[in-house]
Amino acid sequence: MPRPKGSKNKKKNLSLADVEAKIAAQQEAKKALEAEQAEILETIGKQKKLLADKRKQVRAADRALLKLEEKKAEIAAIENAVAKKAEIENVVTKLVSSGKSADEILEMLKK
């Protein structure tokens, strides 16, 4: 394959005005990027504050849920105790109606 004519390293004739225009364009691009960066950092700051607020809300919801679960367990324990008491009363009334004495009923309940 034949070699192309001309050098790729050939210096281009640039004028002072061309270089100044390129510098100005680069400076404008840099300012735009810096402004965009500042905007992004501000958005990140706002999002961090929002995240912290949401975490506080989640912790508060967890505490409230825990309290409600504890109340539920207390109520369930009370209901179980009431149910056992009612069951014992039924057994005692059946035993009394069958003619058992108080001592015999106490012995049966201890078992």
Overview of the structural elements:
The protein contains two helices and no strands. By secondary structure, the protein is an all-alpha fold.
Rounded mean pLDDT score: 88
Please report the distance between the alpha carbons of the first and last residues.
Answer: 109 Å
Number of domains: 1
User: Uncertain spans, ≥5 residues at pLDDT below 50?
Assistant: none
Strand element count:
0
Question: Helix amount, in percent?
Answer: over 70%
H/E series: HH
Quaternary organisation of the protein chains: single chain
Structural class: mainly alpha
Beta-strand content estimate: under 5%
List the helices and strands and how they pair.
Blueprint: H1 16-97, H2 102-110
The gist of it:
This protein is mostly helical and 111 residues long. Helix content is 82%, strand content 0%. It has 2 helices and no strands.
Key attributes of the depicted protein:
111 residues; mainly alpha; 82% helix; rod-shaped
